[in-house]
Design goal:
This protein has 14 helices and 16 strands. By secondary structure, the protein is α/β, with parallel strands linked by helices.
Length: about 400
């Protein structure tokens, strides 16, 4: 699967005119970013999705200078810092001819546990080795150290050190944890049933990404997937020659499906599978219980990781608010965000309900849960919240026990 969420996000940070954009172009072998001697040429983060050997599928992100000035400059710096939320590997580009290492950025990388590499650029001019008490380029650490990968001399102009920089990134990528989707829950030859509603909110002519991912994972591991709408589910189960090992449903029809599927058949949802895949299942399950404590007028943030045209039957803006009101018997204040609008300060909310995050990488999804944890605000996701309000949460997470 080569979707963006599984691609390693490699972000280039540094001061203005440190040569970030030039190094990005040398790193990718493409004219991805505009290069100029003018300070602050890169005004917004630039993303490029590509296959990059020896790394495989990656997203390369070029960021504005972290030393930008003025009102607009401060906004650009904020945007650059927000990129940290989705960064799997940080490359701190230093002008090796005149600048020293930005220790503040290194401290941020360490605090966020982001593996980083310091790239001393412009080695073709006059390479200098800068040393501080906490960082020494000559202090070679094992390449498999997760935090604090040592520095490297590079030249965006001549290409010196660029291949070695890629190799260092590849070693870090090799250490990343790849969680399974369903391959550890079923065996080759097992039959599973995927329940996929086709309603007004369904994309025209295709399945949504989590459904595609689970279907592909099943096929990759020799599992036999049967895909049906909820309206044909009962008939499909009757006609199957064997009892399915697992039923996976879209969250919107969780209640209906749970009534059709016998209690002895494991049942879960695509959204819950995504929560485990992103590493936030435990926190999301705990967050769902906060729904029982919501008071009249409580603020609830409902957030989606992607941007799309909201329709009349939209789950985030229509179905979830209605279900919350019905379940709690209270009127709560709903706020909606989508895409990269997710706020870093969540202190005004009593609960955050997020989508499964299929279009977000694991790092960015965990960052959003971290913002909630730092504000002492409970956070869950669509499927887990719906399962809780239908009284089937324990059953829905049982397959992962």
């Amino acid at each position: 699967m080569n979707q963006n969420l599984e691609r390693t996000h490699i972000s280039f940070f540094g001061k203005r005119n440190a040569g970030k954009s030039s190094l990005v172009n040398a790193f990718t072998g493409q004219d991805l970013s505009i290069v100029s001697d003018v300070l602050g040429t890169t005004t917004d983060p630039v993303r490029k999705t590509m296959e990059l050997l020896p790394l495989g599928p990656v997203v390369i992100i070029d960021t504005p200078g972290i030393d930008d000035e003025g009102v607009l400059g401060e906004e650009r710096v904020k945007r650059a810092q927000r990129i940290l939320d989705e960064t799997d590997i940080a490359i701190l580009v230093v002008d090796g001819d005149k600048d020293s290492v930005d220790q503040e950025m290194i401290d941020i990388f360490k605090e966020r546990e982001i593996p980083y590499i310091v790239a001393y650029n412009k080695s073709d001019i006059n390479y200098k080795k800068y040393v501080s008490e906490s960082f020494n380029i000559n202090d070679r650490k094992p390449i498999d150290a997760v935090i604090g990968i040592d520095g490297i001399q590079v030249s965006a102009k001549t290409g010196e050190g660029v291949h070695e920089l890629k190799e260092k990134c590849a070693h870090i990528v090799a250490k990343r944890v790849n969680r399974p989707l369903i391959s550890d829950l079923v065996n080759a030859g097992d039959v599973i049933v995927l329940v996929v509603p086709i309603d007004s909110a369904a994309p025209k002519g295709r399945l949504i990404l989590p459904q595609q991912m689970v279907l592909r994972d099943a096929l990759d591991h020799g599992v036999i997937p049967v895909t049906v709408r909820e309206s044909e589910l009962e008939d499909a189960l009757y006609k199957l020659a064997v009892t399915p090992k697992l039923v996976i449903t879209d969250s919107q029809v969780f209640g209906k499906v749970s009534q059709i599927v016998d209690d002895d058949i494991p049942l879960t949802s695509f959204s819950i599978i995504m929560a485990r895949f992103k590493g936030n299942l435990d926190q999301a399950v705990k967050g769902a219980h906060k729904i029982d404590e919501l008071e009249e007028g409580a603020r609830v943030l409902i957030s989606e990781g992607c941007t799309h045209h909201r329709q009349c039957g939209d789950i985030g803006s229509v179905k979830l608010p209605a279900l919350l009101k019905k379940y709690t018997g209270k009127t709560v204040e709903i706020e909606l965000t989508s895409g990269r609008e997710f706020p870093t300060d969540l202190s005004k909310y009593q609960l955050v309900i997020h989508c499964g995050g299929c279009m977000l990488g694991e790092t960015e999804m965990l960052s959003r849960y971290a913002y909630a944890g730092n504000a002492d605000v409970s956070m869950t996701n669509y499927g887990i919240a719906i399962a809780h309000m239908n009284g089937i949460l324990d059953r829905s997470v049982a397959p992962f026990a």
